Amino acid sequence: MDIASLPLTPLISLIAGVVILIMPRLLNYIVALYLIIIGLLGLFPQLAG
After folding, report:
1. Is the pTM value of this prediction over 0.85?
2. At what angle do helices 8-22 and 27-43 cross, to 10 degrees?
3. Mind listing the pLDDT tens digit of every residue in the chain (49 residues)?
4. Looking only at Cα atoms, what is the longest distance across the chain?
């Protein structure tokens, strides 16, 4: 299995979930960063590729 063929969203979600379990205070920052990225991709779809 090639890592490049994995979908990005589930991989990010898995990593974020593990980090939140280890350090729950990071939840605010992770959610804020996720919302900012999703918002930017919604406003500027050409950034997504």
Report:
1. no
2. 160
3. 555 666 787 888 888 788 888 888 888 888 888 889 888 888 888 877 6
4. 35
Dig out the tokens for 22 from the structure: 């280890």
Amino acid identity of residue 10, one-letter, is P
User: What burial letters (b/e) apply to 8-26, b meaning 16+ CB within 10 Å?
Assistant: eeeeeeeebeeeeeeeeee
Please enumerate in sequence order all residues whose Cβ is within 8 A of that of 26, keeping only pairs 6 or more positions apart, or say none: 19, 20
Q: What is the DSSP string of 1-49?
A: --GGGS-HHHHHHHHHHHHHHH-GGGHHHHHHHHHHHHHHHHH-GGGG-
